[in-house]
Amino acid sequence: MTTGRSPRDEVKVVVAHSERATLRVGDVFLKVDADQARIDVEVETMALVPVPTPEILWRRPPVLALAAVPGTTLGRLGEPSTASPAAWAAAGAAIRRLHDAPLPPRPGRAGRTVDELVAELDSECEWLVANGVLPADLVTRNRQVAEAALRPWTPAFTHGDLQIAHVFLDGDEITGIIDWSEAGRGDALFDLATFTLGQEPHLRHLIAGYGTDADVDLDVIRAWWSLRSLLGVRWLIEHGFDPFTPGCEVDVLRSRM
Questions:
Q1: Residues in the chain with pLDDT values less than 70
Q2: Global pTM?
Q3: Domains and CATH numbers, the chain
Q4: Which long-range CB contacts under 8 A does 97-101 form with residues at least 24 apart?
Q5: Contact, 37 vs 43, CB < 8 A?
Q6: Considering only Cβ atoms within 10 Å of each terminal Cβ, which end of the chain, N or C, has fewer?
Q7: Contact 109, 181 (CB under 8 A)
């Protein structure tokens, strides 16, 4: 039996958990967020950044409607990216334009202070070991690696959640960067680390586009891989995601051993 409905009529759940959800209906994305402040940040940020962003179609709290961005992403966490070195370099150049932009008015996710990070990191490491989620030696080793990220940094305009699935390209041209709710002043190397999490072979291509004249410390990027993964495991588990999926956070932590 046929319903006569086309794929454009279908509602697809892109991501959903207790904090927010994103749905796709045809060429429209509907972002539903109980925290109005996150939507405010997203709308304000997209008006400021010097890179392509989705078109805002309408906004009726708690829903933000965005037009789909053309092109395809560089890949997804947990899957090796098949994008070309030129595509990774183009992404690096776009990220550099963002980081060089005038600073936004507020700190973002990448702007947590060293003291805040240390307190959060120590708490998460203790939880991971006490609950038998990860072996103590794995947590201890990655806590040591993460130490390099706990240093003073010069604020930049950061995305705050720059996963490879959030950057779209058509060929080697950036067509859009999505999901700006965590944006603000922060550590530029946090963005670079988030973008290359689980994609270490492509780091050199990204940096080639980002610019070797920038202050890019590869040890700090690797430290952020450990730090971000340690901080993310509990949240992922509690929100219905699996950090043990091959290529994801736990594999990133194991690769530091």
A1: 1-9
A2: 0.92
A3: 70-254 (3.90.1200.10)
A4: 97/50, 97/51, 98/49, 98/50, 98/51, 98/157, 98/158, 98/159, 98/177, 98/191, 99/156, 99/157, 99/158, 99/188, 99/191, 99/214, 100/156, 100/157, 101/48, 101/49, 101/50, 101/157
A5: no
A6: N
A7: no
